[in-house]
Amino acid sequence: MYVGVDVGGTKIAAGLVSFEGSLLKQKSILTKAERPFEIVVKDIIALIKEITSELADDELKGIGVGIPGIADKQTGRVFECVNLGWRLVPLRQVLEEEFKLPVYVENDASVAGLAEYTVGSLRGTTNSILITLGTGVGGGFIIDGKLYSGTNGLASEIGHMVVGDNFYKCNCGKTGCLETFTSALALINYTKKLLAEEEMASPLRDYIGEREEALNAKLIFDLAKQGDSLALMAVNRLVKYLAIGISNLVYTLDPEIISLGGGVSKAGDYLLNLLKAKVEEIKIFKDVPSARLVLAELGNEAGIVGAAMLCRFS
Q1: Tens digits of per-residue pLDDT, 215-242?
Q2: Distance between CA atoms of residues 167 and 117, nearest Å
Q3: What's the predicted TM-score (pTM) here?
Q4: Above 80 in pLDDT, residue 149?
Q5: Quick check: 76 and 103 in contact, CB under 8 A?
Q6: Does the domain made of 123-296 have the CATH classification 3.40.980.10?
Q7: End-to-end distance of the chain based on CA atoms, in angstroms?
Q8: 157-176: string of b/e by CB count within 10 Å (b at 16+)?
Q9: How many angstroms separate the CA atoms of 56 and 50, rounded?
Q10: Where are the domains of the chain?
C-alpha cells in the first residue's frame, strides 16, 4: 500500500493507493497557504496519519507527494512553490524522519501524467504526454516507459514555452508563454479584451453585462458551442496556440499519445475536435502518423494516484 499526497494552493488531498494504482480511501483539508511551511507540513503529517490509522505497521511501503512547483530529485528538497510561498524547503527530509519510509516528491503535472500512464488515458504507451490546462499549464512526460521530469524537474514547466507575442506578461515575467494563451485564465483574459475592444453583438456580452466576475472558461466554451461569434474568437485563439505548443512537443519528443487534462479539458470532444483539426492543418510532415489526441480519464484523482505511483516507479 502507498500514500499519495496532492498538495495544492487551496487544498491538500491524501489517499491510500494500491500497488496497482487503485484509490482506496481519500481525505482532504484546506491548505491555508499563507502559513509557513513548518505549519503546513504538520498538517500534511496529520493527514497521512489519519489516512493510514487502520493499517498494520508493515502495510505502508512509501509516500509520494505532488507539489505545484519544482523539487530536487536527489534530495526531495522543494526548490520553489510560488503559490505556497515555499522556497528551498526540506519536504522529503521532514516526512522521512517522521514516518521512517521512502518519500518521493515531484511536480503535480508530472505525477498526474504518471497516474494517466498507470491506470488512465496513457496506459500501454511507451512515449506519451499529459498536458494539464487549468489556471496554468503543465506537462507530464512518459519517455521509454518511465516518468521523465528532466535533470532538475523543469521538464514539467511546458506552460513557459514561448509560442508567440501576447498582450500581457506571464507571472514568470516573460511575454508569450504558452499558459498565457491556453490556460483558463488566458481564455478569460482574452475574452475580456474582446469585450472591451470589439463592438459585435454577443450573447456573452448580454449575459455578462457589467459582471466581469461571472466570466469563466466553461461559459465561454458553452457559448462558443452555440455559435456566439465573440466566444468563438476566444476559443479559436486558444486552440491555435495550443496546437502550436503541441506541435513543438511532437517535434521534440515524438509521442504516441497526448492527453489533455485540467479544467479547460472539460470542454471535452468540442475542444478535442477543434484541436485535432488545427494540429493537422499546421503539421509539417504530412505522411508521418500524428500523435493521437485524447482526453485524460482520472480527473481530480490523478494527483493522489500519481503521487503514490512515484513509490512504485522510482
Answers
A1: 999 999 999 999 999 999 999 999 999 9
A2: 36
A3: 0.95
A4: yes
A5: yes
A6: no
A7: 15
A8: bbbbbebeebeeebeeeeeb
A9: 13
A10: 2-114, 123-296
